[in-house]
Amino acid sequence: MAEKNLWLAYDESEKRKMKYVIDDYKACLDKGKTERECVRTARQMAVEAGYKPLADFIKDGITLIPGDKVFAEYNEKTMVLYHIGEESLEQGMNILGAHIDSPRIDVKQNPLYENEDLAYLDTHYYGGIKKYQWVTIQLALHGVICKKDGTVVNVCIGEKDTDPVFAITDLLPHLGALQMDKKANKVIEGENLDLLIGGAPILEDEKESVKANVLQILKEAYDVEEDDFLSAELEIVPAAKARDLGLDRSMVIAYGQDDRICAFTSLMAQLALDETPKRTACTLLVDKEEIGSYGASGMQSRFFENMTAEVLALSGLPAAISLRRCLANSKMLSSDVNAAFDPLFPEVFEKKNTSFLGRGLVFTKFTGSRGKGSSSDANPEYIAKLRKIMDDNNVRFQTAELGKVDVGGGGTIAYITANYGMEVIDSGLAILCMHAPMEISSKTDIYEAYKGYLAFLKEMA
Predict the structure, then answer these.
(1) Which of 90, 216, 257, 267 is found 20 to 30 A from 453 (Cα to Cα)?
(2) pTM, rounded to two decimals
């Protein structure tokens, strides 16, 4: 268990290894700012690592054997990867699970309007955000527009240096006296998070000429009409890239590190398994965690269960009881971020049971809130096995809760998979500014998480 900052523990060789992991991680963050982009990035990486679509095996009735690598996805929102192991799947899998959705602002279905020669997109925020943090920063527009003829148009505006960006406006201090008297959750109302996207009219005498100009630009760039917004999925995210933070470059600041910091390090560990594992290794990347894991792409759907049933059938275990045995005998790290101790706000933390930047992978025995409400509480026997694996592989880790008992709390997908009877614990990384447009992590923690996830996939029995 790490009790000191890990920069003191690394020699130059270890720092070089860490740099490769960090460079890959930051590249993944920049490519994957939405769930769809995360799945596309993961798919490309998986294919390059020798993974094949599970659908092809199902279509052709190909038997899965130890060493096979397959993946499945749902609608570019959720993805699962399997590296078939030597043991029967009825003996269970070693599973890494993380979510790939992050707090953001979504565009409504009838969004485009003009007001006093300014064009806006009407919005609805997604997940737990502090709304005032999203005003006056540079924002990008990502997503898809699906047309009636079946065409799917990919949209990404604001990421290239030559792209325009967008913004949500705020009052100037000179006129903001009444606003500043409001509670923080009322300073910016949800209906005032509309995105400013245009200000130039196209014709002098045309009604809503700025809006008309925006529609013409969209028509020329994407061949879409206003009605196509009805079947669009557009997400508003910070336009900034993942960057090193600090004069010592010891940290990473980026959008979406909750929870893509766990998702991408889990994916990288899964893909780094060169040899056939003893137990089947599985990495599960899911959507909708920030809003309760509901919906067809959330952890509460049957996607993971259904795909595992397909894998079992192709492995010669088609019976329903085989699926139940497989899931009940599995071991899982439900990887999600924890709140790093912030010296500027010490009053909400209990330091003996708090995670810190730079002290490694974080194990959280239970999440939930106050009286452990809505939590999954890991068994001590399982934790003991994890401790041994981490120590044997020189993986530095820490344990933590999420703030003081009566202050707050949070949740992950652990309680959902625990319903199958599998052993599961929350694990992840400490983060500063969680749920803010830009979040902060330690490079050492990213590296230790990658090492820890890889050790878990290889050695958990």
Answers:
(1) 90
(2) 0.95
